[in-house]
Amino acid sequence: SVEEFLNGARVVVSARTYADFTPQATFDIKKCDLHKLEEGPPLQAVLTREEGLQYYRTMQTIRRMELKADQLYKQKIIRGFCHLYDGQEACAVGIETGINLSDHLITAYRAHGYTLTRGGTVREIMAELTGRRGGIAKGKGGSMHMYTKHFYGGNGIVGAQVPLGAGVALACKYLGNNEICVCLYGDGAANQGQIFETYNMASLWKLPCIFICENNKYGMGTSVERAAASTDYYKRGDFIPGLRLDGMDVLCVREATKFAAEHCRSGKGPILMELQTYRYHGHSMSDPGVSYRTREEIQEVRSKSDPISMLKDRMLSNNMASVEELKEIDVEVRKEIEDAAQFATTDPEPPLDDLCNHIFYNDPPMEVRGTNPWTKLKSVS
């Protein structure tokens, strides 16, 4: 029949066009600024078509997920703290592709992107944001406290995740399993005393730890120039070698992370990375984000160095993908986000009986005192 013929023809066309794409290409990437290092990561990166499509899909998923969270927040469906990651997608995706899933990662409270790259699903993340039973932390963690295997979560206290990450790196060294820990913090946390204490211990004990400062230019509403006497965050490990790179270029981040991971695995101790990036939203949803910077500044970053547009342009100009194909990914991603949002708004909230569960791991059930001495709650691990 005509229909079968047309369908057959369509399959042939798509098969032919796929065969015509460039399977891989080499791109020039910006040189890193180095501290206490003889040489840095390579100045070229190879990208295969498959990797490109994968990076594009993941970054687009994070972007759409955060925009949907923004929408649900404004509808008062998501409440409380909510720090969005849009604009910084190349950091999460670049780091993740430079290490293994069996390596460890810990970050601050802008954690939705990492929860996804570490194996969480959009559905679990959205349901956690709305505090529902199907959330990744059973609806008890919310925006800042999501965890997966080898991902020690978002942490709500500024800078507190850095010493914890060094502890994970100490465990890696102690177990001798050749794994490393990536320890992330922002430019706002970079002046915390506990970070310098951690540098010292990590260096003394040669811990396999990559300290990464995601410098998005503002700590809450304070620009880095107003907050730090030295904004060369990659040099502030002093005796620890460091790299500063373009955090808006996923390939740049990937190559630098591979370089840093190799440094740690070879027993040379910790290394510092500073990713120069930018957030499009305010610090959190309660910050409109335009009182301390202009709308024009945000617009300029969007138009000149957006991580997703940059990857898309590279792929299209090297005939690694077609516009239609990327549009198709966009449609699929949008649908995935819509389905997740639907689930996150209809899934039930956890019942009160679950309130005290999981206080301890693998312990017999116990009683927990309620808000007054005569109410007793039950805790099951």
From TrEMBL:
InterPro entries: DH_E1, PDH_E1_Alpha_Subunit, Pyrv_DH_E1_asu_subgrp-y, THDP-binding. Keywords: Carbohydrate metabolism, Glucose metabolism, Magnesium, Metal-binding, Mitochondrion, Oxidoreductase, Phosphoprotein, Pyruvate, Thiamine pyrophosphate, Transit peptide. Residues 57-351 form the Dehydrogenase E1 component domain. GO terms for molecular function: metal ion binding; pyruvate dehydrogenase (acetyl-transferring) activity. Its EC number is 1.2.4.1. It catalyses: N(6)-[(R)-lipoyl]-L-lysyl-[protein] + pyruvate + H(+) = N(6)-[(R)-S(8)-acetyldihydrolipoyl]-L-lysyl-[protein] + CO2. It comes from the Eukaryota. One of its GO terms (cellular component) is mitochondrial matrix. One of its GO terms (biological process) is pyruvate decarboxylation to acetyl-CoA. The keyword Transport does not apply. Coiled coil: none annotated. It is an enzyme of class 1 (oxidoreductase). The pyruvate dehydrogenase complex catalyzes the overall conversion of pyruvate to acetyl-CoA and CO(2), and thereby links the glycolytic pathway to the tricarboxylic cycle. This is Pyruvate dehydrogenase E1 component subunit alpha.
